[in-house]
Specification:
The protein has 21 helices and no strands. By secondary structure, it is mostly helical. The protein has a single domain, classed as Growth Hormone, Chain: A, CATH 1.20.1250.20.
Amino acid sequence: MTALLLLGFSSGLPLLLTGRTLQAWMKEAQVDVGLIGWFSLIGLPYTLKFLWSPLLDRFVPPFFGRRRGWLVITQIGLLMAIAAMSFQQPAQTLKLLAINALVIAFLSATQDIAGDAYRTDVLQVSELGIGASIWVLGYRIAILISGSLALILADQVPWQLVYLFLAGLMLIGLTTTFWAPEPDEAVRPPETLIDAVYLPFKEFFERLGLGVAGFVLLFILLYKLGDALVNNMATPFLLDIGYSKTSIGAIQGSFGFLATTLGVVGGGALLTQMGMNRALWVCGFLQAISNLGYFSLTVLAKNNLFLLLAISVENFCAGLVTAAFVAYLMSLCNHSFTATQFALLSSLMATSSIVLASPAGDLAKLTGWPVFFLITVAACLPGLLLLLVVAPWNAKPSLICNLDDENNSDSG
């Protein structure tokens, strides 16, 4: 669990460096808000990572095994790519900045493939809930540092030094990978690259059935759409209505972090007490309600107390829903093809924040901030409705996870 906490930190650290934190840097450099919104397409590797995930299932690096070997490769690459951001100037070299950010996103997505596969392989079925919570906690701590702390530091030192400091933090994950335990159960990798590409899809659709599998994939795509729209524009919105980077960063770093921790722990507790299905219902409704916190900031007078409440509610609900959702995705994977199957599922999840949420800046410009945040609440409804099919409230809680081909008939 200690390894999962620190590897979760390593997985979360690069995300905002090409997302919300980079948006704040670009906003300060007077880049157009519409362009900032479209800049989220830099994160396309998070959506497309399933295309190269079979390579991580099929090929085993000559050091540290199938999962940890790929972690070492991507973590070293990320350290160098993030450090290279310290040489960028958004106002003068926007294209070069985009290329550098794209490299970070690609390496980060590949690290996620290896990390997600490692986490799923190393955990027993009974440990999925707590393991997901621990991973998400590390992930959220990294987001706190690469988001909140980065904003505070950027008020004191140049952005270039901020990115250089954050590059050094990748050493935490790299060091952890060296001593992280191997999964207890050794699973033989696919014998050919064709098998690594074809068999994961064949096994997934045969196990669930074509119809159910289709609804599950659509649910994964839409479940966090409302939250993705908010996250894409939260920092430009708060800066636009007059809050300072220090105020945003300080509140996110204190109350926001506390709320995230409570949310992650609460997500694990809900999974244990209510089962997977009901936890997804509760977390989904709370996620939708949390968006109203940002709506309230558009109609209330500027006040740090209101900012504190909005950020705390959003972080608490984000911790809840992410812990439950990660456990759900892990429960859908077969350990023989973890990298490919989890990459496919998490790529669909990332599509909401990368592709479907990319017009958020233009939508906010068209509608204004109050209407925009009401739209984000409505965007949560399709995912909630799909729960009627993929996770009915009164259905018997179960996991769909297959540990090997011999117990497929006992699953789900």
